[in-house]
Amino acid sequence: MEKNCLNCTDVRKVAIVGCGFVGAACAFSLMQSGLFSEMVLIDSDKAKAEGEALDISHGVPFSKPIKIYAGDYDDIKNSSIVIITAGANQKPGETRLDLVKKNISIFKSIIPEIKKRDFKGILLVVANPVDILTTVAIKLSGLKENMVFGSGTVLDTARLKYELGNHLDVDSRSIHAFIIGEHGDSEIAAWSSANVSGIPLNKFCEMRGHFNHEEAMEKIAENVKNSAYEIIQKKRATYFGVAMAVKRICEAIVRDEKSILSVSSMMKGEFDIEGISLSMPAIVGKNGVETHVPLQLSDREKQALKNSAGTLREILKQNEI
Q1: Which CATH number fits domain 3-150: 3.30.750.24, 3.40.1390.30, 3.40.50.720, 3.40.50.80?
Q2: What gap in Å lies between CA 250 and CA 257, rounded to an integer?
Q3: Fold (topology level) of 154-318
Q4: Looking at the whole model, is its pTM more than 0.90?
Q5: Is residue 4's pLDDT more than 50?
Q6: Which residue out of 58, 167, 183, 213 is catalytically annotated?
Q7: pLDDT class for 145, splitting at 50, 70, 90?
Q8: Active-site residue 213, yes or no?
């Protein structure tokens, strides 16, 4: 088996903690990706984990060879990535921050179990509120900060590209733009740095016959921010989009792509913010988060980012983390 020399872990082994909608969708997405040859599913309801492992395993003949099974925390020791999706679900009318106390409590039971196994790989936090839980995971795990990060606004950024692609009638993969800050109500669309294949966004909009920039930007940013609420109201949960985001992050790690993704990681003084995890563009590879990428922001965007950080910091303070 190929080894990650830095961590002495199996690059082709992944563990998922939590087999609810998000965990199961992530497992299904990763099974199809061909990135891993071994996947262990862990859940407080062992039968649920066994059922999901069996169900997904039946699709392996249509995909790539992979061993999928239900296990326990002893099975994570040599995993290259542990993905934590376990947590209370966001209910209709509930914000991600409303989940704080319940999910911090859950993390206080999960992270020590991982720490006991002397885990040396990457800890990827997906449960919400992801920025706060990433900070909690860093503090409780004892792992290096670059090895613990969250899915952040990778999905929000995809939603922004999707909305812009529809607005401009152009391939969303040609759009370069980020949602930054909290994965939640205080998130910021970084319009100042947005472009379409190097062409400033407003100029490209005018090429496509759109001139009401402020109105369009406000509408698109609101659509992105409210996407999860709309989905939860209609089908009770979101899971397919985030599963694809998790697959994309795992690709960057396993292939050491050094891709730039808006994951949630510890701020170290950028924009005068530190000691809190925020979703910002970062270079991601086999060693986790290498560095944040300098992002051009307007004064208004910088202040909104500080306000977002302040919101999260206050929540952490209230929960004594």
Answers
A1: 3.40.50.720
A2: 10
A3: L-2-Hydroxyisocaproate Dehydrogenase; Chain A, domain 2 (3.90.110)
A4: yes
A5: no
A6: 183
A7: very high
A8: no
